[in-house]
Amino acid sequence: xxxxxxxxxxxxxxxxxxxxxxxxxxxxxxxxxxxxxxxxxxxxxxxxxxxxxxxxxxxxxxxxxxxxxxxxxxxxxxxxxxxxxxxxxxxxxxxxxxxxxxxxxxxxxxxxxxxxxxxxxxxxxxxxxxxxxxxxxxxxxxx
Length: 143
Fold this sequence. Notes:
Layout: E1 8-12, E2 18-20, E3 32-34, E4 43-47, E5 50-53, E6 59-62, E7 73-76, E8 88-91, E9 94-97, E10 100-107, E11 118-122, E12 133-137
Antiparallel strand pairs: 1-4, 1-12, 2-3, 4-5, 6-7, 8-9, 9-10, 10-11
């Protein structure tokens, strides 16, 4: 991956909004899309399949460990074992659960509004922009 060990924004291809913790840094904090402000809670790093939030060092996690459609995504401590709900792959603009590549990150209810929760959903056939993401490197001069 070209962004290994570097911070980046995860940007919705459809809306231009970024994945954010809204400044929350506790386990269980839900992930939403927000307008980019340049804050650390909008930055992520990719390491061994984990998407790590820069401000909290917690990872992107499927709530409850249940790999199914409609599960919200939150922050959680990185697991040493049984991390099936925390391991992600990135391909063709989709961010998918490594344990079930048919399960991808999506905007809840196909809503395009700021503040919309991120959930898991079945990957849709064809070009579906609400399920596609662009990784934008963080430029150090933004600090």
